[in-house]
User: Fold these one by one.
Assistant:
Number 1:
Amino acid sequence: MNINKLSVVHNHFEKIYNYELSLLNEKPIEKEIIIESKIKLLIINFQALLLENNKYEESLNILIRLRKYIKYYLFYKNISYEDIMKKAAYKAYALIEIYVEQDKEYIDLNSLILNLLKFEKSILLKNINKNEIIDFEVLYLSIISINIFMKKDIEIKKIIEDLNE
Amino acid sequence: MNNQIKKDLIYLKLNIFYIISNNDTDNDIEFIENFINKYSRNKIKFNKNSFLTKIKNNPINYYNNLLLKIINVEIDLLEKKDFKENFSNLLNYLGE
């Protein structure tokens, strides 16, 4: 790792520290953006892993985490069943459930990715041009990018606890 | 051909993400330039400085708009629909 990269790492860890402190005063809108940012990045990472061979365990781990975040939309958000977001979320959730818990051979990966992308699209359409969330998302994306960069998974404990309740 | 486009779109998403999160390298910028040149057959010119200014000034708006355009092409490809219009929108957005 070169010096420039190390400097970036250091700066990001400072942001993580400050961010975790700010979680003590977490607002509902921020929790939602965190989950949506996670979903976006997990989908990209899942697609990227599929490009590589022998990455089954990693891709499974990503799907398990995606399932957890999609659950938020299905059980905690007040959106109607007719809503395109919920339809895509349900389909993606069901396909992940089968893929993870039963047999991946039953699942058409293209169909799984298609529904994940439709769900992601509905999130993007909901949020596009909402300027008030931008600063927060920039910070959060910086934080999670370093997780990928360092190959570590720094979980935001409070959110996970909320989701597991 | 379509499989190659699918792969390139995923790498494009990753590269844009690395750029907005300041983990980018010259290789990431070069990938985007090559992507535009390859798929526009050199008809759309890539302006590196203009691109970096846009992405650094308003990273999330740019990222989300770009992501939406990429996803539209990906969905077309997965549903085996004609993706030319959405792909053209994506290339024009990158080259603006």
Number 2:
Amino acid sequence: MEDIEAIAVLQDPVRRRLYEFVAAQDHEVSRNEAAEGAGIQRTLAAFHLDKLVDAGLLETESRRISGRSGPGAGRPAKLYRRSGAEHQFSIPARDYRTAADLLAEVAEVARLDTQLQDAARREGRSAARAAGPVEDLDAAAALLAARGYEPRMDEGEDVLRMANCPFHALSESHPPLVCGMNLALLEGLLEGAEGLSVRMDARPGLCCVAVTASKNNECLT
Amino acid sequence: MTEHHLAQLNVGVFSFPLDDPRMDGFRTMLDPLNAVADSAPGFVWRLVEDGENDATGLRTSLGEDVNINLSVWESREVLWDFVYRSGHLDMLRRRGDWFRLPKAPFQVLWWIPAGHIPSVEEAVERLRLLRDQGPSPRAFGFRDSYTPEEAAASAQ
């Protein structure tokens, strides 16, 4: 399916709600859960979920939720998660991706990590000035969400982790360079936010940066 | 078919002696990161000096100021996840603080039969092969990986 067709599938508001709900979960989602999350009936949800799978926006897997197997375990449930495919459509045609790949390649060979981090930090600071003050983790989450990071609060830990890396493909082809750039960008973005600290905490499947609320504003000397 | 494991060697040229205070950041990350590697999924083996927890004291024909890191993993994916999606990424990000970064490749990967423990000489030879002749099934990097089958075919 062409990118434009995949994107057009999301024009339907119900489908879009379902897609966003599934994408926001940290686990694979059953039809029942998706229906409940989007506030629609199960059969309608099933119909739209399959449209999203056909468009390549979601992936599906069958598994017995109860963990039982063999006769009597029941039909395996269909579980949905966001697909890893990227879709872009631009009018007129643009190809920033090839340019970014080439620039990253050259920056890596020339060992320009530090210069790139400096530029990213300046970019983050300037975006922070435009966004206004950030006073707590919730405000940081809103700011990060607006930049496409899909932040999730790690329960009980006062840590924000990002389910989406806006620089995903580049972060896989040039990890130290691009993840270092991303960290510096977020440091710049949140350096005025008192009580919040930004650090690298790379894990499979997540953006490599975590934002932490320091509980007592570090009065230690 | 023989099962294969992936061997990796990476090298760094120390900017300062290991006991220099400017190397504190590197030294303090070593033990925790080695512990992460040892318990990482798919980790098989890493080179350590006798009686030590790492190989920072070992020297090779690559030079007196060259630190080597030699390990074996079950697949490219598990090694990639450790190198780039664990605490190790932060060390890579800061490596310029502690190491001079040569323009030549400083990491090499190659397939070995499962159970084989690569020698330092073998590892250095693979790095030289990559540096001299570019990526091939016998010595490659993450960006231009080859399969064990391609490596076997090229050795015929």
